[in-house]
Amino acid sequence: MADQADIFQTVPVSGISRRSVIGGIAGLTLMPGQSGAQQAENAGHQDIGMKIRIVLEDRTLTGTLVDTPTARDFAALLPLTLTLTDYAATEKISDLPRKLSRESAPEGIDPVAGDIAYYAPWGNLAIFHKAFRYSPGLISLGVIDTGGEIFTRPGSMQATIERIDE
């Protein structure tokens, strides 16, 4: 029987070392009770308990921010009153008063309806009412919990985004 030190020797097998294979297998462990697809779907959508309110002219919505440096930086700006404008028949966007942190941010995301995101190259907020393709530079901030269909209305809308203190 090989001793334990021999098991971890770096021996190329079809250009891949045992150490790489073992490390790759170790990296595939899942959170209990979740499939890999569920983990991928929930990546970037970890609730921090930071609830927000989005007050529009005729409706009030709620949302939940994710636990990331970018979302925390966004929360530090609240309350904010913004004019949301249509963009690409897919989202409402607005400039933010300053750029947000990109610390630990992914290269991009595949947004879906209800996503609240930050588009780093332009420094703007985006609220999606349709799914869109993978977008480099797009960082998840959170999700709309209720009433997101209102963003399908054409035209600009005034919105005040604030924290919900519980």
From TrEMBL:
Gene3D superfamilies: 2.40.100.20. Residues 56-162 form the Cyclophilin-like domain. Pfam families: Cyclophil_like2 (PF18050). This is Cyclophilin-like family protein. It comes from Brucella grignonensis.
